[in-house]
Automatic annotation (TrEMBL), chain A:
<protein>
    <submittedName>
        <fullName>Xanthine dehydrogenase family protein subunit M</fullName>
    </submittedName>
</protein>
<dbReference type="InterPro" id="IPR005107">
    <property type="entry name" value="CO_DH_flav_C"/>
</dbReference>
<keyword id="KW-0560">Oxidoreductase</keyword>
<dbReference type="InterPro" id="IPR036318">
    <property type="entry name" value="FAD-bd_PCMH-like_sf"/>
</dbReference>
<dbReference type="InterPro" id="IPR036683">
    <property type="entry name" value="CO_DH_flav_C_dom_sf"/>
</dbReference>
<feature type="domain" description="FAD-binding PCMH-type">
    <location>
        <begin position="1"/>
        <end position="222"/>
    </location>
</feature>
<dbReference type="Pfam" id="PF00941">
    <property type="entry name" value="FAD_binding_5"/>
</dbReference>
<dbReference type="InterPro" id="IPR016169">
    <property type="entry name" value="FAD-bd_PCMH_sub2"/>
</dbReference>
<dbReference type="InterPro" id="IPR002346">
    <property type="entry name" value="Mopterin_DH_FAD-bd"/>
</dbReference>
From TrEMBL, chain B:
<keyword id="KW-0408">Iron</keyword>
<keyword id="KW-0411">Iron-sulfur</keyword>
<dbReference type="InterPro" id="IPR036010">
    <property type="entry name" value="2Fe-2S_ferredoxin-like_sf"/>
</dbReference>
<dbReference type="InterPro" id="IPR036884">
    <property type="entry name" value="2Fe-2S-bd_dom_sf"/>
</dbReference>
<dbReference type="InterPro" id="IPR006058">
    <property type="entry name" value="2Fe2S_fd_BS"/>
</dbReference>
<keyword id="KW-0479">Metal-binding</keyword>
<dbReference type="InterPro" id="IPR051452">
    <property type="entry name" value="Diverse_Oxidoreductases"/>
</dbReference>
<protein>
    <submittedName>
        <fullName>(2Fe-2S)-binding protein</fullName>
    </submittedName>
</protein>
<dbReference type="InterPro" id="IPR012675">
    <property type="entry name" value="Beta-grasp_dom_sf"/>
</dbReference>
Length: 330, 158
């Protein structure tokens, strides 16, 4: 790990001031991703602003019936919070599907939003990677790319966004609240992460010194919802494909649907096209298949990840079928 | 920098700590507590598991400064007096220790589970220990150990 200046921030104002004063500074929250990346020399900040003591750990109900979640709430605490478990079960399921107990006990909401890809070539400094070192190339395209993305990729980068939590937040229309020395602003989750294009090193629309302070969830929908994750082993593995879905069926017709995908794209992937096909359609397996096909039509596969198209199709259909059954029993 | 941590109930101070050091390094190399092990240094293997403010974490991913003023309990701090903690006894009784490298981390993770949920099902035990890798045992004896310790804890509470 390279040497760096360490600043322990007692409050948000100090944290954002310290980041503004030290270009290239990184905020340190739970550390489960950043400490690892610094040890691998993938991240080499001159200044680290430790925000782990900031008082951003509460869950509050908003006037509009939603929740405001402090950015430093730990993943384990958020998953166990009664208001999250009862009103946003999809979020609890997604959080508990991620990482291991030890990591969930340190990882924070803000850190999870900004966690970086687990593409092995991003971590391996002996190989080219446009994300790690722009202009060097991409070792994944001709390499071991079984875990890589099929939607939203570019010639520069095929890495996936690794988060489970973010897939649920995408389906829930979360809004991220950020602060810097200039003030505060709100960013819909859909606009937080960028697609790689020819600048895969730019992963979000945040300025380098902007601090995520909270995440707001709109009022929950009454529809049955679920987070379903498919991976190589039953626990402690990143998603090959995951689906966050909520489905409201009225008289056999899809009245409302929310669908987001993980493990298949460089950002948490809101399945807008599938939602468009489904809304107003009969709640049948044929519709679910047509919706999945529409979403996956633009998929671009590599040598190792062709299977993800069929896996995603089946996971979407199975999840929607389960939710339709659950809704018809209610 | 100076780092002061409550470790196993005692206030301990380390001086001249480099900010890039991990809590694991401070425990092992500066405070003389080699129980938590250093293996993957990536949060994958769980051999460095310690309690930080009562929750198990991978000490290798905690920057030294983040532990300032907080409370840490390592495997050395589980047993009271001369004997072993019941979770440690269960690992010995069931033959859950082979090379022993993963054992301290597994003991801390299992200790937390047994105290939180002594009625844990096998699936819940597997999930709770998913962050601890063992390359010797094949895990079956470890599951036996946790079941034994959990049954004992459940018996105490009944």
């Amino acid at each position: 790990m390279k040497d760096f200046a360490y600043v322990a921030a007692p409050d948000v104002a100090t944290a954002v001031r310290a980041a503004a004063d030290a270009p290239g500074a990184r905020f340190l929250a739970g550390g489960t991703n950043l400490v690892d990346l610094m040890r691998q020399h993938v991240e080499r900040p001159d200044t680290v602003v430790d925000i782990s003591r900031l008082p951003l750990t509460s869950v509050e109900e908003t006037k509009s019936g939603g929740l405001r979640i402090g950015a430093l709430m730990r993943n384990s605490d958020l998953a166990a919070h009664p208001l999250v478990r009862t009103r946003y079960p999809m979020l609890t399921q997604a959080l508990l599907a991620g990482a291991s107990a030890q990591l969930r006990n340190m990882a924070t909401v803000g850190g999870n939003l900004l966690q970086r890809t687990r593409c092995p070539y991003f971590y391996d400094r002996a190989t080219p990677c446009h994300k790690r070192e722009p202009g060097t190339g991409c070792a994944a395209v001709g390499g071991f790319n079984r875990s890589h993305a099929i939607l939203g990729t570019s010639a520069s980068c095929v890495a996936t966004h690794p988060s489970d939590m973010c897939v649920a937040l995408a389906a829930l229309d979360a809004v991220v609240e950020v602060e810097d020395v200039r003030g505060t602003r709100r960013i819909p989750l859909a606009d937080l992460h960028r697609l790689p294009g020819d600048t895969p090193h730019l992963e979000t629309t945040l300025a380098p010194d902007e601090l995520i302070t909270s995440v707001e969830l709109p009022a929950p929908a009454a529809a049955p919802s679920r987070y379903r994750k498919v991976r190589d082993r039953a626990s402690f593995a990143f998603a090959l494909v995951s689906v966050a879905a909520a489905l409201e069926v009225t008289d056999g017709t899809v009245a409302a649907v929310r669908l987001a995908l993980g493990g298949v794209a460089p950002k948490p992937w809101r399945a807008v096209e599938a939602e468009r096909v489904l809304t107003g359609a009969p709640a049948t397996e044929e519709s679910f298949r047509a919706a999945a096909d529409a979403e996956l039509a633009p998929a671009v596969t590599l040598d190792g990840n062709e299977f993800k198209v069929e896996l995603a199709r089946r996971t979407i259909v199975a999840t929607l079928r389960d939710l339709a059954r659950e809704g018809s029993r209610a | 920098m100076r780092v002061t941590i409550e470790v196993n109930g005692e206030r301990r101070t380390a001086d001249d700590v480099w900010p890039g050091e991990s809590l694991l390094y401070v425990l092992r190399e500066r405070l003389g507590l080699p129980g938590a092990k250093n293996a993957c240094e990536q949060g994958e293997c769980g051999s460095c598991t310690v309690y930080l403010d009562d929750t198990p974490v991978c000490a290798c991913l905690v920057a030294a400064g983040q532990a300032e003023g907080r409370s840490v309990r390592t495997v050395e701090g589980l047993a009271g007096g001369d004997g072993l903690d019941p979770v440690q006894e269960a690992f010995v009784a069931t033959g859950a220790v082979q090379c022993g490298f993963c054992t301290p981390g597994l003991i801390v993770a299992a200790h937390e589970l047994v105290h939180r949920d002594p009625g844990a099902t096998d699936a819940e035990i597997r999930e709770a220990l998913a962050g601890n890798l063992c390359r010797c045992t094949g895990y079956e004896k470890i599951l036996d150990a946790v079941r034994l310790a959990a049954a004992k804890k459940a018996g105490e509470r009944a």
